[in-house]
Amino acid sequence: EDDITEIYQVVMVGECGVGKSAVTMQFLKGFFLEDYEPTVDDRYQKIVNIEGTNVGLEIVDTAGQEAYSAIRDKYLREGDGFVLMYSVADRPSYEKIPELVKQIQKVRDSDRVPCVLVGNKSDLDPDDRISEEEGQELASSFKIPFYEVSAKGAQNVQESYISLIKLIRVQAGSI
Ligand code: GDP
Ligand code: MG
């Protein structure tokens, strides 16, 4: 009854420093990792139960500084779904998202690749904070789900992955 019949790869993308590693760790281990090695790509496995089905996940935490676009393209080609992350406290990281979406769509030659937009560090409130409305607006323009999350406060982390996995399963015809 613990058989894994579905395995999906989720790729974390977004600018350096937005919290891809911290959110990944919060999801996998349930704690906030203050300082994570910024330069390595890592892969993690986890089994999650979604709507009564055990789903095997491989999470690829990219470092975002791939020297060769060929390496980045490889991630974009292989992923079953993508967590598109910006930091609510870093406007350039938000403005970078449309370019990421374009890259994914180009590599996949499809505009139906499962993605979720995640605005991390919702616990911060600087003057030029990206508002929840701005996040929602961007997500709506790509017709993808949106969550404001905090790796630090463990807010909405599970929810954002689960919504992505559901999209992947629909796309794969599993549900
Ligand atoms: P990555 O380069 O996208 O993997 O970013 P990291 O996970 O290494 O995080 C970059 C920095 O942001 C680290 O100092 C983290 O402690 C911090 N950070 C990550 N998530 C949060 C969060 O939800 N809230 C706050 N306040 N800081 C965070
Ligand atoms: Mg990282």
Automatic annotation (TrEMBL):
Its Gene Ontology biological processes? signal transduction
Q: Which UniProt keywords apply?
A: GTP-binding, Nucleotide-binding
Q: Which domain of life is it from?
A: Eukaryota
Which residues of the complete protein appear here?
10 to 184 of 229
Name under which the protein is recorded? Uncharacterized protein
List the source organism. Acrasis kona
A GO-annotated cellular component: membrane
Name any one GO molecular function: GTP binding
